[in-house]
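step=predict obj=Transcriptional regulator n=256
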Amino acid sequence: MAASKKGAEPAERQNGIDRTIDLLEALLHLRAPSKLSDLAKQMGAPRSTVYAIANRLIEADLLESVGEGGQVYFGKAVHLYGRAYAEANPLHRRCREALDRLATQHSATAQLCALRGRKYVVVDTRDGSGLFRITTDVGIEVPLPWTASGRLLLDHMSPSEIRAFVPKEDFRLPDGRLLDVGDFIKDVARARREGRCVTTALSDRFTSCLAAPIRDKKGIAVATLCFVIPADSPNKRRTELLDDLVATATELSDRH
């Protein structure tokens, strides 16, 4: 019996780790304080397990109690971990400086984007001084086919890999239009050839997304720089913004 129990311990620990990650992911998706009973229901986990995990995370300041309704949300330790990551990561630090310059110089919303699972997320953003401002909130997961960045972030994959990677439902745009998978794959190939990508009226009918890849040593796009501008922007401005994006992303890429 002792040997059997010992062999089960790693699986039990792993289950606890999985539950902890699930709880944090649930809060990230909800982006609002939530009751533990609601989180347990969303996770499909026993309430006792979720309460035990949450209490330990509260002790570690990873979560904190909010209000008087038994709700929890991210605690100050999460902010400290995030700041430590951003300050210690050379690429992210350089990207922040690049976003500041791009947004200020061109009076346009500049964003740093990357893959998270099978979705696209904005990692960091800067608003320009122009009147037109539309952004995706940092950390919100967006279907890859809706964005210019999504096409670049997949450009190391084969057509069959792309079909297997992108959920079929993600080809449905917010306005109900359905993107053709074959056309999307052609867009990905074109983005790879041109080293840049522009999409218009996909996630929003009134915007264009301009993107350039930041690549690692293997040539894989690990992130993108992008501008979000009005869909009716003059071609001269589009070209100017794209050229600066490509030059800046190339400087940020690991070419050694």
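step=describe
The mean pLDDT is 87.
step=end
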